[in-house]
Design brief:
Elements lengths: L4 E2 L16 H8 L1 H9 L8 E2 L2 H23 L14 H22 L3 H28 L4 H22 L4 H8 L20
Parallel strand pairs: 1-2
Helix pairs in contact: 1-2, 2-3, 3-5, 4-5, 4-6, 5-6, 6-7
Length: 200
């Protein structure tokens, strides 16, 4: 998947240089999912990759963001009836259309073995589009007295979260599985690992 693994000073990871990293220690400090994500992002096939505490820390922050967004969505689904599909407005439809586009692009990248680009794309979509824009725009609607608007917001949030978990699972299997098991949806499979990929 990659060439030499280098440190933040661009030196190869080597015992003789004393800059070798024990993965067990790093996993204990940052979590296995953060370490996996950090090793994939910025690592194009055949090229050297850099690892540093800052990179592991950034991916740990992403894992925390994923957990917090999922918790927020789940907290606002207690009265949601999944059986009825609510009427969506134009912004809801646009958000779901963009999700389909992102899922298709990520699928193509995965099929082309461009895992680093796929990981970066889902990272940026989840954080900067879903968390920063869509979730924030839905907050007033989740408190809306108009039930149809509230249900539409709940539906869109759950739909996007579920799809994001499926796309993130190859990179961050532990946290995505944990969240997936808490989703109030009818699951076709017992675990996320064997669920159908979003574009298949």
């Amino acid at each position: 998947l990659h060439g030499l693994v280098r440190d933040e000073k661009n030196r190869k990871i080597s015992k003789s240089l004393g800059n070798n990293i024990d993965p067990i220690d790093i996993i204990k400090e940052y979590g296995a999912d953060a370490v996996r994500m950090a090793m994939i992002i910025g690592t194009s096939p055949g090229n050297d990759s850099k690892v540093s505490p800052e990179k592991f820390k950034a991916c740990k922050h992403f894992a925390n963001k994923l957990w917090n967004v999922a918790r927020f969505v789940l907290m606002n689904l207690s009265d949601f009836n999944r059986a009825t599909k609510p009427k969506l407005n134009s912004s809801d439809k646009a958000a779901l259309k963009e999700l389909q586009k992102v899922a298709k692009e990520i699928s193509q990248l995965m099929d082309s073995f461009k895992f680093h680009t796929a990981a970066e794309k889902i990272y940026h979509y989840f954080w900067h589009t879903f968390a920063d824009k869509i979730v924030e725009s839905m907050k007033p609607r989740l408190k809306d007295k108009k039930k149809s608007s509230q249900e539409a917001a709940q539906y869109v949030l759950l739909e996007i979260l579920t799809t994001c978990l499926k796309m993130l699972h190859p990179f961050m299997p532990f946290i995505t599985e944990e969240i997936y098991q808490k989703l109030p949806i009818k699951k076709k499979e017992k675990c996320l690992m064997i669920e159908k990929w979003p574009t298949r």
